[in-house]
Specification:
heterodimer; A: about 260 residues; alpha/beta; six-stranded mixed beta sheet; four-stranded antiparallel beta sheet; 10 strands; globular; B: about 400 residues; two-stranded antiparallel sheet; 15 helices; 14 strands; elongated; binds adenosine-5'-diphosphate; binds magnesium ion
């Protein structure tokens, strides 16, 4: 359970070469991503930043096997994603990655427990073991007491914890978050970031899209996209877990650094 | 395979939740199916009841009894003609036909108005004149007293046999033999009570009075030219066709009909009655099948429509499911099962409704016989509803399965 991957930390789990994503427009082709090359190793903690419209979500959707690239090669766990059927991609989404969205994307009429069990429905698994695993995941995000609540009875931070538990329940090696704290206030953001720090410490590979500097500061590596291309990709030597450094100071430190 | 079964079970759970989340909408959607299946079940149940009843009636009546009666073709009717069989026709046939065991003439005394009085009570009934052979031809036996004798007819006795309903309606003693009744001014002594024949198609079969043929003919208002029916029963193993041909020759000669003049009479056999009934059953079934076909088509389109609405409404939900690893097959089976269950729910409600309606018809129409829904009709209904659910559920389900996860997630 606490061993999401047995790969050495220098082994690539994600490798993109020459990834391009374009959309046909009225009179020209619009490039949301252009020749993106990116390799991410096991247990890395990566922030993807950049201005709005720079292609961050497009990149995350490709990484999460939700959307195919227009060209280029995406290898996930050393498998060429483009060569697989839609059914196999569904299985990859179910087993290899856990996706967390800015708007939570919970089922509004289903209880917290049902929401967290949902990914397990798509596996051959008995109801009792489904429940057991979902309760474990809810325990990891500190929501054991909200099992039977409905999403609209929870705060934003609690909802995102439910979504994180749902991403964790299949114990995926890679956790992807597309602006996971974008809808949360700064106090709740800190709590959620502490949770990501913890998951990283437990061995998960974490990739978060953000345009907030204080989130990027938590990460060990910051990839900056501008106009669909990687503008910079650098290690953040001073990344510190939120518990140790107050966020205001951390922001200053990185900005000066 | 295991995955598919799993998908089906999970799909069924999700489908049932969704159907009950919109119970009213689901009920309205399946209205076409409900009406179609209810119609099938009602019609089949009533038809089954009727035909088992008529078969029984025909068997009781004696399948070898033949009725010969006047027939007026539509052309003749337009000319204002009305053909009749008379007593001389009967006498000729009785004298000249071979192979007939018993033959009798009956004359319905319409001119008497059908009114009968006993004490202060009076009622309407059917008064028929016939002779002693009637008992053997029709197989009617007296419950009390005796039937008509030859001398009753020869001597024009004012005697009568009454059906059991007449006794009840006139408040007569249970055994009224020896009592007197009044038929339009003439007194008749009751000599017998005919055993009960029950009901057919809700009609009372015991509301009648039989009196000697000659007596009825002699009563005021009745005339020698009144139309009669001739009933006969052939000898065992006799050639019925041959008998009918003999009779036809005799009657045509008597009326001096030439080559292509139509017969002014017709033979009615149990088999013919059964065929007529079957053809009625056939056309009712045909009309019912049309109604059912249209209802089921409308029902199917309703299901397709509501499933398309459902897919659109749940686009976001489908996106979430796909993002979490639901395969296209899983989504497809989930929506297909929902359409199937909707259709089957409609089928079950229709089945219950149809059964209820058939039972109501059975109650309000006692002659309809025992209302039974045959097993094949139930299977047919389920077969139809399953097919409708799958056929009309397929397009929406495919649409859902093919949704692109990113687009679906973006849907608000
Ligand atoms: N389906 C689409 N069709 C056309 N353009 C799209 C589509 N999806 C995204 N884009 C465009 O691609 C660019 C990058 O989008 P996105 O990856 O969502 O940016 P970010 O997440 O960095 O704000 C935007 O300009 C957006 O309008
Ligand atoms: Mg975005």
């Amino acid at each position: 359970m606490s061993e999401p991957t047995n790969k050495a930390s220098n082994e690539p789990v994600i490798s993109l070469s020459n990834i391009t994503k374009h959309y046909p427009m009225a009179d020209e082709t619009f490039y949301a991503l252009q020749n993106v090359n990116l390799t991410i190793n096991a247990n890395e903690y990566v922030a993807i930043t950049g201005p709005s419209g720079s292609g961050k979500s497009t990149l995350m959707n490709i990484l999460g096997c939700l959307d195919p690239a227009s060209s280029g090669e995406y290898r996930l766990d050393d498998q060429n994603v483009a060569s697989h059927s839609e059914a196999y991609l569904a299985t990859l989404r179910n087993q290899a990655v856990g996706f967390i969205f800015q708007s939570f994307n919970l089922l509004p009429r289903a209880s917290v427990l049902t929401n967290v069990m949902q990914p397990l429905v798509y596996r051959l698994m008995s109801g009792s073991s489904r429940k057991k695993m979902a309760l474990e995941a809810l325990d990891r995000v500190g929501l054991s007491d909200k099992v039977n609540s409905l999403p609209n009875q929870l705060s934003g931070g609690q909802r995102q914890r439910v979504a994180i538990a749902r991403a964790l329940v299949t114990n995926p090696a890679i956790i992807l978050g597309d602006e996971p704290t974008g809808n949360l206030d700064s106090k709740t953001t800190l709590e959620i970031m502490a949770l990501f720090d913890q998951l990283h410490a437990q061995g998960h590979t974490i990739i978060l899209v953000t345009h907030e500097q204080e989130i990027a500061d938590h990460c060990h590596r910051v990839v900056r996209l501008v106009d669909g291309q990687i503008e910079s990709d650098r290690l953040n030597q001073r990344a510190k877990p939120s518990q140790e450094t107050p966020p205001q100071d951390q922001t200053k430190q990185v900005m000066h650094g | 395979m295991g995955n598919l079964l799993h998908a089906i079970i999970e799909g069924a759970k999700a489908a049932i939740q969704s159907i009950f989340a919109h119970a009213m909408r689901s009920a309205l959607t399946t209205l076409g199916i409900i009406i179609g299946v209810a119609a099938v079940i009602t019609v089949v149940a009533v038809m089954e009841g009727l035909s088992s009843n008529i078969s029984k009636e025909l068997d009781d009546m004696g399948s070898d009894m033949v009725t010969l009666r006047a027939f007026t073709s539509p052309d003749q009717q337009m000319l204002g003609l009305s053909n009749k069989l008379n007593y001389d026709d009967f006498l000729q046939l009785k004298a000249k036909t071979d192979g007939v065991r018993d033959m009798t003439a009956t004359m319905t005394a319409f001119s008497l108005g059908g009114s009968v009085t006993y004490g202060r009570k009076s009622t309407q009934t059917m008064i028929t004149g016939t002779d002693s052979s009637y008992q053997n031809v029709v197989s009617t036996y007296p419950e009390f007293g005796r039937f008509l004798s030859q001398s009753d007819d020869l001597r024009r006795r004012r005697v009568a046999i009454v059906g059991t309903s007449v006794i009840k309606k006139l408040d007569m003693p249970a055994n009224p033999v020896g009592e007197f009744i009044n038929l339009s001014g003439d007194w008749f002594r009751i000599i017998g009570v005919a055993e009960s024949r029950g009901q057919m198609f809700g009609f009372d079969q015991d509301n009648y009075i039989i009196a000697p043929f000659s007596t009825i003919r002699s009563l005021k208002g009745a005339s020698a030219t009144d139309n009669i029916d001739i009933l006969f029963r052939p000898e065992t193993d006799a050639d019925l066709k041959g008998i009918q041909d003999q009779m036809r020759q005799i009657l045509r000669k008597r009326h001096k009909l030439s080559g292509d003049d139509p017969d002014y009479f017709e033979f009615i056999t149990a088999e013919k009655t059964r065929k007529q009934f079957d053809s009625i059953t056939g056309s009712v079934t045909f009309v019912a099948a049309g109604v059912v076909g249209i209802s089921l088509l409308v029902g199917g389109i309703g299901i397709m429509n509501i499933m398309l609405v459902s897919v659109t409404e749940r686009t976001k939900e489908i996106g979430i499911a796909k993002a979490l690893g639901a395969t296209p097959q899983f989504i497809l089976s989930q929506f297909l099962i929902e359409a199937l269950l909707l259709s089957l729910f409609g089928g079950v409600i229709g089945l219950l409704l149809g059964y209820g309606l058939a039972a109501l018809v059975g109650l309000s129409m006692p002659g309809a016989g025992a209302v039974t829904v045959p097993m094949w009709a139930i299977w047919l209904s389920f077969g139809f509803t399953t097919t409708i659910g799958v056929v009309f559920g397929l397009a929406p389900a495919v649409k859902a399965a093919k949704l692109n996860p990113v687009d679906a997630l973006r849907y608000e």
